[in-house]
Amino acid sequence: MAQSAHFNVLDLNMSIRVEHDRRRRQFTVSLNGSHDRAVLLYEYVGKRTVDLQHTEVPDAYRGRGIAKHLAKAAMDFVVEEGLKAHLTCWYIQKYVKENPQPQYLECILH
């Protein structure tokens, strides 16, 4: 049987693909086909300012680095778009503290 376009995160040999839905203002990773997903939600709170609000990974998939991929994608988006960011989500705060890239630090509003 052919594999679908989505991957199974349980297969450690495959990379995690983060998708960005700008209309819904979210980053997602499809898990175990397309039924489960991890998500990072954000909102624009100004013309050039976003609030990275919430990251959620289903319990069965926690501890596998999925949230780290979501956080990286969100922070890379902020940098690439020349935005400023509020980090409401505790996990993104943790990610930036553990990965203090200068380009990330320059974008964060305190």
Automatic annotation (TrEMBL):
Source superkingdom: Eukaryota
SUPFAM superfamilies (UniProt xref): Acyl-CoA N-acyltransferases (Nat)
Boundaries of every N-acetyltransferase domain copy: 19-109
Entry's family note: Belongs to the NATD1 family.
PANTHER family named in the record: PROTEIN NATD1
Name used for this protein in its record: Protein NATD1
Protein source organism: Paramormyrops kingsleyae
